[in-house]
Amino acid sequence: MLERLPLEREVTARRWDVFCKVVDNFGDIGVCWRLARQLHDEFGIHVVLWLDDPASLARLCPDASAHARTQWLHGVTVERWDDATVVDELGEVLIEAFACSVPASVVALMRAPQATPPVWLNLEYLSAEQWVAGCHQLASPQGHGLQKFFFFPGFTAETGGLIAEREMRAARAGWGEHARAHFLDSLGVQPRAGALLTSLFAYENDALAELLDAWATGAAPMHCLVPEGRVLPQLQAWLGEAVTAGATRERGALTISVLPFVSQADYDRLLWSCDLNFVRGEDSFVRAQWARTPLVWHIYRQADGAHLEKLDAWLALYLADLPAATRAAATAFIRAWNLGQGAGAAWPAFAAALPQLRDYAGIWAERLLANGNLADNLVNFVRAKLK
Hints:
The protein is α/β, with parallel strands linked by helices.
């Protein structure tokens, strides 16, 4: 039995079920795993995370098994979700992460006679588009008296906010040069003297070679930290040799260090340690904003080009209060990176804008925090529905 929580942490719902299908390698599970742990750690909620790809979780959480059907990790129950899964019990809250469809057995449970249906939420993808505010918390009738609510993470007070754990915020506030040096040393990284230290976590990108060329032939020293991932084969092609975690290579003004895939907590520390972070998808994108440093977002590509509309919406919101020249330089470079061409040519103007972007990064993070964070906003919404 769960012990009674202090009043400020008490919630009506004791168990939440979160369903996650992994589409974007680590973005989907990254968000769900952080949210599940925060709900447990800060609200005492028993979270059951139903996951179709435990192997992806094992990369983010070294304690996780890639094969177990049931495992208990950091206070969270993780259940394998596959075609054989039959759910015979639900908690007071049901979350479909990123519009995945729950198993038929879940719908049957909710529709059973005498059943008390859970608060059913569709946790949507993150977007800065203006229409999101109008759809946030809207109900969607599902038949048999059931209804589902749309819950949108976002960047404004009219949305659900972003994941921002208390522990992470406190750790970031206490991060200093000594901690940075110790952490980088633990990764085997000795930053190049005077270099702009950059992390590069991206999808495959045709603009990579031209950007590396610009860095290597530029006047300013660059040191790029590349965690193992999807961009590594293109990096190897540019270098003309196979490189793995632990390797460091120099080409002109550019130093490249390949890093092992790290845990979520260490990835946060990596972002805090760098002067500029290239991130992708949703999870690393959000964490880069809490890092309070300039960032370049590689958005998940959609065949119809809808991702570019989402990218432009975020850029317009993020850069709105900056000088026109800074907005233009950042927009041009980040769009070029996402279009896969022109990043090398756009780099000098973006590099010149980095001091202003660095000063602004902390202001932006504080604005996001003023919206409340995703877990708090979810709990408050559920609390109101369960009254």
